[in-house]
Specification:
Layout lengths: L34 H16 L10 E8 L5 H9 L1 H4 L2 E8 L2 H9 L6 E5 H8 L5 E10 L4 E5 L14 E4 L4 H12 L8 E4 L5 H6 L5 E4 L3 H9 L3 E4 L7 E8 H6 L1 H20 L1 H12 L3 H9 L1 E2 L8 H15 L17 H6 L9
Parallel strand pairs: 1-2, 1-3, 6-7, 6-8
Antiparallel strand pairs: 3-10, 4-10, 4-11, 5-8, 5-9
Length: 361
Protein backbone atom coordinates (compact mmCIF):
# COMPACT_ATOMS: atom_id res chain seq x y z
CA UNK A 1 0.00 0.00 0.00
CA UNK A 2 1.29 3.44 -0.88
CA UNK A 3 2.46 5.67 1.97
CA UNK A 4 1.29 8.72 0.05
CA UNK A 5 -1.42 10.62 1.97
CA UNK A 6 -4.78 10.10 0.42
CA UNK A 7 -6.09 13.20 -1.35
CA UNK A 8 -9.65 14.39 -1.58
CA UNK A 9 -11.28 13.65 -4.89
CA UNK A 10 -11.91 16.81 -6.84
CA UNK A 11 -14.49 17.60 -9.47
CA UNK A 12 -11.65 18.77 -11.69
CA UNK A 13 -7.91 18.97 -11.17
CA UNK A 14 -6.49 22.34 -10.35
CA UNK A 15 -5.66 24.64 -13.24
CA UNK A 16 -4.60 28.25 -13.14
CA UNK A 17 -6.17 30.87 -15.38
CA UNK A 18 -4.79 30.77 -18.92
CA UNK A 19 -2.64 33.73 -19.94
CA UNK A 20 -4.47 35.91 -22.42
CA UNK A 21 -1.60 37.45 -24.37
CA UNK A 22 1.60 35.49 -23.90
CA UNK A 23 2.57 31.86 -23.42
CA UNK A 24 5.58 32.87 -21.36
CA UNK A 25 4.93 35.11 -18.37
CA UNK A 26 7.01 36.47 -15.53
CA UNK A 27 6.34 34.75 -12.21
CA UNK A 28 5.20 38.11 -10.87
CA UNK A 29 2.19 37.94 -13.15
CA UNK A 30 0.92 34.72 -11.59
CA UNK A 31 -2.18 35.02 -9.49
CA UNK A 32 -4.11 32.44 -7.49
CA UNK A 33 -7.20 31.17 -9.31
CA UNK A 34 -10.49 32.30 -7.84
CA UNK A 35 -13.27 30.00 -6.68
CA UNK A 36 -15.42 31.00 -9.65
CA UNK A 37 -12.85 29.52 -12.02
CA UNK A 38 -12.84 26.23 -10.09
CA UNK A 39 -16.63 26.08 -10.13
CA UNK A 40 -16.78 26.82 -13.84
CA UNK A 41 -14.18 24.17 -14.70
CA UNK A 42 -15.91 21.60 -12.49
CA UNK A 43 -19.33 22.22 -13.99
CA UNK A 44 -17.86 22.24 -17.49
CA UNK A 45 -16.20 18.84 -17.03
CA UNK A 46 -19.36 17.32 -15.56
CA UNK A 47 -21.39 18.66 -18.48
CA UNK A 48 -18.91 17.50 -21.10
CA UNK A 49 -18.73 14.03 -19.59
CA UNK A 50 -22.50 13.75 -19.58
CA UNK A 51 -22.52 14.62 -23.29
CA UNK A 52 -20.07 11.87 -24.32
CA UNK A 53 -21.37 9.27 -26.73
CA UNK A 54 -22.45 5.93 -25.25
CA UNK A 55 -20.31 2.84 -25.69
CA UNK A 56 -21.05 0.93 -28.87
CA UNK A 57 -20.26 -2.51 -30.24
CA UNK A 58 -17.86 -1.96 -33.11
CA UNK A 59 -15.50 -3.89 -35.35
CA UNK A 60 -12.02 -3.47 -33.81
CA UNK A 61 -9.73 -1.09 -35.67
CA UNK A 62 -5.94 -1.40 -35.35
CA UNK A 63 -4.25 1.77 -34.13
CA UNK A 64 -0.68 2.68 -33.19
CA UNK A 65 -0.17 5.54 -30.72
CA UNK A 66 3.14 7.23 -29.89
CA UNK A 67 3.11 7.80 -26.13
CA UNK A 68 5.70 9.93 -24.28
CA UNK A 69 6.92 8.41 -21.03
CA UNK A 70 5.67 11.30 -18.94
CA UNK A 71 2.80 12.20 -16.65
CA UNK A 72 1.27 14.54 -19.22
CA UNK A 73 0.18 11.40 -21.11
CA UNK A 74 -1.90 10.26 -18.12
CA UNK A 75 -5.16 9.77 -20.05
CA UNK A 76 -3.51 7.37 -22.50
CA UNK A 77 -1.89 5.38 -19.69
CA UNK A 78 -5.24 5.17 -17.90
CA UNK A 79 -7.12 4.18 -21.07
CA UNK A 80 -4.60 1.40 -21.70
CA UNK A 81 -4.84 0.11 -18.13
CA UNK A 82 -8.64 0.23 -17.94
CA UNK A 83 -9.35 -1.10 -21.43
CA UNK A 84 -11.15 1.98 -22.74
CA UNK A 85 -9.60 1.71 -26.19
CA UNK A 86 -10.92 -1.83 -26.60
CA UNK A 87 -14.35 -0.77 -25.34
CA UNK A 88 -14.47 1.85 -28.08
CA UNK A 89 -13.54 -0.62 -30.79
CA UNK A 90 -9.79 0.01 -31.02
CA UNK A 91 -6.98 -2.50 -30.94
CA UNK A 92 -4.23 -0.17 -29.73
CA UNK A 93 -0.52 -0.85 -30.03
CA UNK A 94 1.26 1.78 -27.90
CA UNK A 95 4.81 2.74 -28.82
CA UNK A 96 6.62 4.52 -25.98
CA UNK A 97 9.13 7.32 -26.41
CA UNK A 98 11.29 9.34 -24.04
CA UNK A 99 9.49 12.55 -24.96
CA UNK A 100 6.69 13.99 -27.06
CA UNK A 101 9.26 15.41 -29.44
CA UNK A 102 10.49 11.89 -30.19
CA UNK A 103 6.96 10.46 -30.35
CA UNK A 104 6.29 12.99 -33.10
CA UNK A 105 9.60 12.87 -34.99
CA UNK A 106 10.53 9.20 -34.61
CA UNK A 107 7.00 7.87 -34.33
CA UNK A 108 4.40 9.72 -36.36
CA UNK A 109 6.68 11.26 -38.98
CA UNK A 110 8.65 8.03 -39.37
CA UNK A 111 5.45 6.06 -40.01
CA UNK A 112 5.80 3.94 -36.88
CA UNK A 113 2.55 5.24 -35.34
CA UNK A 114 -0.74 6.70 -36.56
CA UNK A 115 -1.14 9.29 -33.79
CA UNK A 116 1.21 10.81 -31.25
CA UNK A 117 1.13 12.96 -28.14
CA UNK A 118 3.36 16.01 -28.13
CA UNK A 119 3.55 19.48 -26.63
CA UNK A 120 3.03 22.47 -28.91
CA UNK A 121 6.72 23.33 -29.45
CA UNK A 122 7.74 20.12 -31.29
CA UNK A 123 4.49 20.26 -33.26
CA UNK A 124 5.23 23.79 -34.43
CA UNK A 125 8.82 22.95 -35.34
CA UNK A 126 7.66 20.05 -37.51
CA UNK A 127 5.07 22.17 -39.31
CA UNK A 128 7.92 23.85 -41.14
CA UNK A 129 8.40 20.65 -43.13
CA UNK A 130 5.24 18.59 -42.57
CA UNK A 131 2.20 20.49 -43.80
CA UNK A 132 -0.32 17.69 -43.18
CA UNK A 133 0.04 17.50 -39.38
CA UNK A 134 -3.14 18.26 -37.47
CA UNK A 135 -4.09 18.74 -33.80
CA UNK A 136 -7.22 16.82 -32.78
CA UNK A 137 -7.35 17.95 -29.14
CA UNK A 138 -5.34 18.77 -26.09
CA UNK A 139 -5.42 16.04 -23.44
CA UNK A 140 -3.56 17.83 -20.66
CA UNK A 141 -2.65 21.42 -19.86
CA UNK A 142 -0.65 22.94 -17.04
CA UNK A 143 1.43 25.96 -16.15
CA UNK A 144 3.50 23.95 -13.67
CA UNK A 145 4.52 20.69 -15.37
CA UNK A 146 8.25 21.36 -15.78
CA UNK A 147 11.15 21.70 -13.38
CA UNK A 148 14.70 23.00 -13.13
CA UNK A 149 16.96 20.55 -11.28
CA UNK A 150 20.37 21.81 -10.18
CA UNK A 151 23.42 20.75 -8.19
CA UNK A 152 23.86 22.48 -4.84
CA UNK A 153 27.64 22.04 -5.03
CA UNK A 154 27.67 24.20 -8.17
CA UNK A 155 26.38 27.15 -6.18
CA UNK A 156 22.74 26.82 -7.19
CA UNK A 157 20.39 27.73 -4.35
CA UNK A 158 17.87 29.91 -6.20
CA UNK A 159 16.83 30.38 -9.81
CA UNK A 160 18.86 33.58 -9.97
CA UNK A 161 21.98 31.42 -9.50
CA UNK A 162 21.53 29.91 -12.97
CA UNK A 163 23.40 32.78 -14.61
CA UNK A 164 26.74 31.60 -15.97
CA UNK A 165 25.88 27.92 -15.46
CA UNK A 166 25.79 25.02 -17.92
CA UNK A 167 22.16 23.96 -18.28
CA UNK A 168 21.02 20.87 -20.12
CA UNK A 169 17.72 20.43 -21.92
CA UNK A 170 16.17 18.74 -24.94
CA UNK A 171 16.43 21.04 -27.93
CA UNK A 172 13.31 22.46 -29.62
CA UNK A 173 11.00 21.03 -26.99
CA UNK A 174 8.58 22.24 -24.34
CA UNK A 175 11.28 22.02 -21.66
CA UNK A 176 13.61 24.08 -23.87
CA UNK A 177 10.93 26.76 -24.06
CA UNK A 178 10.38 26.47 -20.30
CA UNK A 179 14.08 27.19 -19.74
CA UNK A 180 13.73 30.32 -21.86
CA UNK A 181 10.72 31.39 -19.77
CA UNK A 182 12.54 30.76 -16.49
CA UNK A 183 15.54 32.80 -17.61
CA UNK A 184 13.27 35.58 -18.79
CA UNK A 185 11.53 35.65 -15.40
CA UNK A 186 14.94 36.23 -13.76
CA UNK A 187 15.77 39.03 -16.16
CA UNK A 188 18.23 36.83 -18.09
CA UNK A 189 18.46 35.69 -21.69
CA UNK A 190 19.74 32.42 -23.13
CA UNK A 191 23.05 34.22 -23.73
CA UNK A 192 23.51 34.40 -19.94
CA UNK A 193 23.88 30.62 -19.66
CA UNK A 194 25.59 27.85 -21.60
CA UNK A 195 22.92 25.55 -22.99
CA UNK A 196 23.84 21.89 -23.46
CA UNK A 197 21.37 20.08 -25.70
CA UNK A 198 20.97 16.44 -24.72
CA UNK A 199 18.48 13.62 -25.17
CA UNK A 200 15.86 13.70 -22.42
CA UNK A 201 16.94 10.33 -21.04
CA UNK A 202 20.56 11.51 -20.70
CA UNK A 203 19.82 14.56 -18.54
CA UNK A 204 19.82 12.83 -15.11
CA UNK A 205 23.12 11.04 -15.75
CA UNK A 206 24.74 14.20 -17.15
CA UNK A 207 23.76 16.06 -13.98
CA UNK A 208 24.90 13.26 -11.66
CA UNK A 209 28.27 13.02 -13.45
CA UNK A 210 28.79 16.77 -13.27
CA UNK A 211 28.78 17.37 -17.02
CA UNK A 212 26.07 20.00 -16.52
CA UNK A 213 25.16 22.20 -13.56
CA UNK A 214 21.39 21.97 -13.98
CA UNK A 215 18.72 20.80 -16.40
CA UNK A 216 15.22 21.69 -17.52
CA UNK A 217 12.89 18.69 -17.73
CA UNK A 218 9.83 16.98 -16.28
CA UNK A 219 8.96 13.62 -14.79
CA UNK A 220 10.19 10.90 -14.80
CA UNK A 221 13.61 12.55 -15.28
CA UNK A 222 13.22 14.75 -12.21
CA UNK A 223 12.65 11.67 -10.03
CA UNK A 224 15.61 9.89 -11.61
CA UNK A 225 17.92 12.83 -10.91
CA UNK A 226 16.78 12.99 -7.28
CA UNK A 227 17.31 9.26 -6.90
CA UNK A 228 20.88 9.69 -8.15
CA UNK A 229 21.81 12.86 -6.27
CA UNK A 230 19.57 12.88 -3.20
CA UNK A 231 20.04 15.99 -1.06
CA UNK A 232 22.79 17.22 -3.37
CA UNK A 233 20.07 18.20 -5.87
CA UNK A 234 17.73 21.16 -5.68
CA UNK A 235 14.45 21.36 -7.62
CA UNK A 236 12.69 24.54 -8.74
CA UNK A 237 9.25 25.11 -10.17
CA UNK A 238 7.88 28.36 -11.56
CA UNK A 239 4.07 28.21 -11.74
CA UNK A 240 2.68 30.54 -14.34
CA UNK A 241 5.91 30.86 -16.33
CA UNK A 242 4.71 28.67 -19.20
CA UNK A 243 1.28 27.26 -19.90
CA UNK A 244 1.70 24.16 -22.05
CA UNK A 245 -0.66 21.63 -23.56
CA UNK A 246 -0.19 18.00 -24.47
CA UNK A 247 -1.64 17.62 -27.95
CA UNK A 248 -3.06 14.63 -29.78
CA UNK A 249 -1.54 14.91 -33.26
CA UNK A 250 -2.28 13.00 -36.46
CA UNK A 251 -1.92 13.35 -40.20
CA UNK A 252 -4.58 14.83 -42.43
CA UNK A 253 -4.36 11.76 -44.66
CA UNK A 254 -5.12 9.45 -41.71
CA UNK A 255 -8.06 11.61 -40.65
CA UNK A 256 -9.50 11.61 -44.15
CA UNK A 257 -9.01 7.88 -44.65
CA UNK A 258 -10.26 6.65 -41.28
CA UNK A 259 -12.40 9.33 -39.61
CA UNK A 260 -14.15 6.74 -37.45
CA UNK A 261 -10.83 5.78 -35.83
CA UNK A 262 -10.16 9.37 -34.80
CA UNK A 263 -13.62 9.59 -33.23
CA UNK A 264 -13.20 6.32 -31.32
CA UNK A 265 -9.79 7.44 -30.08
CA UNK A 266 -11.23 10.68 -28.72
CA UNK A 267 -14.14 8.84 -27.11
CA UNK A 268 -11.76 6.45 -25.32
CA UNK A 269 -9.71 9.35 -23.98
CA UNK A 270 -12.88 11.06 -22.74
CA UNK A 271 -13.78 7.80 -20.97
CA UNK A 272 -10.35 7.89 -19.29
CA UNK A 273 -10.86 11.54 -18.36
CA UNK A 274 -14.12 10.68 -16.60
CA UNK A 275 -12.47 7.75 -14.79
CA UNK A 276 -9.49 9.84 -13.71
CA UNK A 277 -11.77 12.55 -12.34
CA UNK A 278 -13.67 10.02 -10.24
CA UNK A 279 -10.66 7.94 -9.19
CA UNK A 280 -7.80 10.43 -8.99
CA UNK A 281 -5.60 8.40 -6.65
CA UNK A 282 -5.87 5.28 -8.78
CA UNK A 283 -4.83 7.27 -11.86
CA UNK A 284 -1.77 8.56 -10.01
CA UNK A 285 -0.77 5.02 -9.02
CA UNK A 286 -1.25 3.71 -12.57
CA UNK A 287 0.79 6.48 -14.19
CA UNK A 288 3.53 6.21 -11.56
CA UNK A 289 3.77 2.46 -12.09
CA UNK A 290 3.89 2.80 -15.87
CA UNK A 291 6.64 5.44 -15.65
CA UNK A 292 8.56 3.94 -12.75
CA UNK A 293 8.32 7.29 -10.94
CA UNK A 294 7.57 8.39 -7.38
CA UNK A 295 3.75 8.52 -6.99
CA UNK A 296 4.04 11.65 -4.85
CA UNK A 297 5.79 13.52 -7.66
CA UNK A 298 3.33 12.24 -10.26
CA UNK A 299 0.48 13.41 -8.01
CA UNK A 300 1.95 16.91 -7.94
CA UNK A 301 2.20 17.04 -11.74
CA UNK A 302 -1.39 15.88 -12.20
CA UNK A 303 -2.71 18.12 -9.43
CA UNK A 304 -1.11 21.11 -11.11
CA UNK A 305 -2.70 20.29 -14.46
CA UNK A 306 -6.01 19.71 -16.16
CA UNK A 307 -6.60 16.30 -17.76
CA UNK A 308 -9.35 17.04 -20.28
CA UNK A 309 -10.00 16.39 -23.96
CA UNK A 310 -10.62 19.84 -25.38
CA UNK A 311 -9.94 22.24 -28.20
CA UNK A 312 -9.60 25.53 -26.39
CA UNK A 313 -9.36 29.00 -27.91
CA UNK A 314 -6.26 29.70 -25.81
CA UNK A 315 -4.24 27.33 -28.01
CA UNK A 316 -4.13 29.98 -30.73
CA UNK A 317 -2.38 32.83 -28.85
CA UNK A 318 -0.23 30.24 -27.05
CA UNK A 319 1.20 28.88 -30.29
CA UNK A 320 1.50 32.34 -31.84
CA UNK A 321 3.73 33.39 -28.92
CA UNK A 322 5.81 30.24 -29.33
CA UNK A 323 6.26 30.94 -33.03
CA UNK A 324 7.66 34.35 -32.10
CA UNK A 325 10.18 32.66 -29.81
CA UNK A 326 11.13 30.21 -32.55
CA UNK A 327 11.68 33.05 -35.02
CA UNK A 328 13.80 34.90 -32.47
CA UNK A 329 15.98 31.93 -31.55
CA UNK A 330 16.80 31.06 -35.17
CA UNK A 331 15.91 33.74 -37.75
CA UNK A 332 13.35 32.43 -40.22
CA UNK A 333 12.09 29.60 -38.03
CA UNK A 334 8.34 29.79 -37.59
CA UNK A 335 7.89 32.20 -40.49
CA UNK A 336 6.41 29.42 -42.64
CA UNK A 337 3.40 29.01 -40.31
CA UNK A 338 1.01 31.93 -40.65
CA UNK A 339 -2.43 30.43 -39.91
CA UNK A 340 -2.48 28.24 -36.80
CA UNK A 341 -6.18 27.50 -37.16
CA UNK A 342 -5.50 25.68 -40.41
CA UNK A 343 -3.60 22.99 -38.51
CA UNK A 344 -6.32 22.27 -35.96
CA UNK A 345 -8.82 19.59 -37.03
CA UNK A 346 -12.03 20.33 -35.15
CA UNK A 347 -14.26 17.87 -37.03
CA UNK A 348 -13.51 14.64 -35.08
CA UNK A 349 -14.09 16.16 -31.64
CA UNK A 350 -17.05 18.13 -32.99
CA UNK A 351 -18.60 14.82 -34.04
CA UNK A 352 -17.96 13.21 -30.66
CA UNK A 353 -18.90 16.11 -28.39
CA UNK A 354 -19.33 19.60 -29.88
CA UNK A 355 -19.35 21.21 -26.42
CA UNK A 356 -15.67 20.38 -26.12
CA UNK A 357 -14.75 22.47 -29.17
CA UNK A 358 -14.22 25.95 -27.77
CA UNK A 359 -12.31 27.38 -30.75
CA UNK A 360 -14.00 30.15 -32.71
CA UNK A 361 -13.52 29.56 -36.43
Amino acid sequence: MSSRPRRLHRTARRVRPRPSSSACNSASLCQKPCGAVFRFVGLLVLFLTACSEPEQTQQPEALRIGVPNQATSALVHLALERGYFAKRGLQVDPVFFDSGKLALAEGLLAGRVDYALSAEIPFLWQLRHEDDLRVLASVYSSDNANRIVGRRDRGIATLSDLRGKVIGTQKDSAVHYFLYCVLRAQGYTEADVTTSFLAARDLPSALAEGRIDAFSAREPYVSEALDRLGDAAVVFSLPGAYLQSELLVGRLSELAGKPQVARRLLQALIDAEDDGRKHADEMVDIVARHLGADPRRIARVLDDGFNAVLLDQSLLPLMEAELQWMAGSVPGNGDEVTDILRYIATEPLQAVNPQRVLIVQ
